[in-house]
Design brief:
The chain folds into three domains: 181 residues, Spore Coat Polysaccharide Biosynthesis Protein SpsA, Chain A, CATH 3.90.550; 104 residues, Spore Coat Polysaccharide Biosynthesis Protein SpsA, Chain A, CATH 3.90.550.10; 37 residues, no CATH class. Helices cover 35% and strands 14% of the residues. The strands form three sheets. Strands 3-2-1-4-7-6 form a six-stranded mixed β-sheet, sandwiched between helices. The protein has a three-stranded mixed β-sheet with strand order 5-9-8. Helix 1 crosses helix 8. It is built from eleven helices and eleven strands. It is globular, with a radius of gyration of 20 Å. The protein is of the alpha/beta class and 332 residues long. The structure holds uridine-5'-diphosphate (UDP), alpha-D-glucopyranose (GLC) and manganese (II) ion. The site of manganese (II) ion has 5 residues, from loops.
């Protein structure tokens, strides 16, 4: 199995926290495959050292950027041009087959069976199911494919400004040609889908193997109260059926990853997001904590607009619990 690997990408220290939790979750579920993380030049030294502890290979790559501000603006995700960097994963030709996973995914069970699939296998995107979501996909590294993908980027661009647009137009046969290349949704359960089809989640959600925190606000943008084991700014009704994946992400971060970060950062300050004093290994100064991207506070008008554009904050203000409260108040 030494010629097969799980691969992720982190161009900065924030996404690197995601990569750390992802790597730890793959190890906890006893993968027999290698783990590789691609990093950009801006990732700090101590962060790289932590990644070295969790991953078999840490590969430095150039940051590629689509520069397509128009399409990225349509998605309201200006930061995603940089996801072209993901295409470097095809250069890992020391492996014959790989599974790419976004740094904002969390593994809930062993998923080594994904290596039985062929390029390009992926799960449907929850927003447009005739496209695949490029947060989890099976592929075969090849310099030839890498060259063709870059040429495709140059000639055709990307319809979303990120890698998902390019990959879907390059692998354009995906929606119709071969059903074995459609991964079950449980290998890329996006947190958005839980709320958009709750009964399906109640029926099938317990089978989930990978959760994907797709969307602008990522787990590391919240802060965590380790003493009370709760994620700040995110309330969940204990009576709801679905597991709190965000809390699971933070529990893994605080129990396994934080100690590795503390060991590497030593007396240098870093922002962990944990807020329970020494017990939680808190090393963040207040000033740094305030620099972290807190979940945005927006007006009710802006919130309505976001809803209408399909950009609800499902993990925060627009959580199922809050929607339910609002509906109850109308019914009353
Ligand atoms: N990514 C990165 N740096 C960035 C943005 C993205 O390394 O500044 C990588 C990271 O692996 C991330 C993936 O590209 O998971 C795709 O971006 P993201 O997950 O934010 O997109 P979404 O799934 O929310 O559409
Ligand atoms: C997405 C995918 C992500 C990809 C981004 C840009 O929604 O989840 O993996 O990088 O679009 O194309
Ligand atoms: Mn993602």
């Amino acid at each position: 199995m030494a010629d097969q690997a799980f691969v992720t990408l982190a161009t900065n220290d924030n996404y690197a926290k995601g990569a750390m939790v992802l790597g730890q979750s793959l190890r906890n579920h006893k993968t027999s495959r290698k783990l590789v993380v691609l990093i950009g030049p801006h990732v700090a030294e101590p962060t790289r050292a932590v990644l070295h502890k969790l991953y078999d290979e840490v590969v430095l790559v150039d940051v590629l950027d689509s520069g397509d501000t128009a399409n990225l603006a349509l998605m309201k995700r200006p930061e995603l041009g940089i996801t072209f960097t993901k295409l470097h994963c095809w250069k890992l030709t020391q492996y014959t087959k790989c599974v790419f996973m976004d740094a904002d995914t969390l593994v809930l069970a062993n998923i080594d069976e994904l290596f039985e699939r062929e390029e390009l296998s992926a799960a449907p995107d929850p927003g447009w199911p005739d496209c695949f979501n490029s947060g989890v996909f099976v592929y075969r590294p090849s310099m030839d494919t890498y060259g063709k993908l870059l040429a495709h980027c140059e000639e055709k661009g990307s319809f979303d400004g990120g890698d998902q647009g390019v990959l879907n137009s390059y692998y354009s046969g995906w929606p119709t040609e071969d059903i074995s290349k459609h991964l079950p949704f449980i290998y890329n359960l996006s947190s958005i889908a839980i709320y958009s089809y709750l009964p399906a989640f109640k029926q099938y959600g317990h089978e989930a193997k990978v959760v994907h925190f797709l969307g602008k606000v990522k787990p590391w943008n919240y802060s965590y109260d380790a003493k009370n084991q709760s994620v700040k700014g995110h309330s969940q009704d204990p009576s709801t059926l679905h597991p709190n994946y965000l809390l699971q992400w933070w529990q893994l971060f605080s129990t396994s990853v934080l100690a590795l970060m503390k060991a590497e950062y030593g007396s240098q300050p870093f922002h962990s997001g944990c807020e329970a004093g020494e017990e939680a290994g808190e090393v963040t100064s207040k000033a740094q904590a305030s620099q972290s991207p807190a979940p945005p506070q927006i007006s009710s008008q802006e919130r309505k607009q976001k809803w209408e554009q399909g950009q609800a904050d499902y993990m925060g203000m627009d959580s199922f619990e809050n929607i339910e409260k609002k509906l109850d108040s109308f019914l009353k």
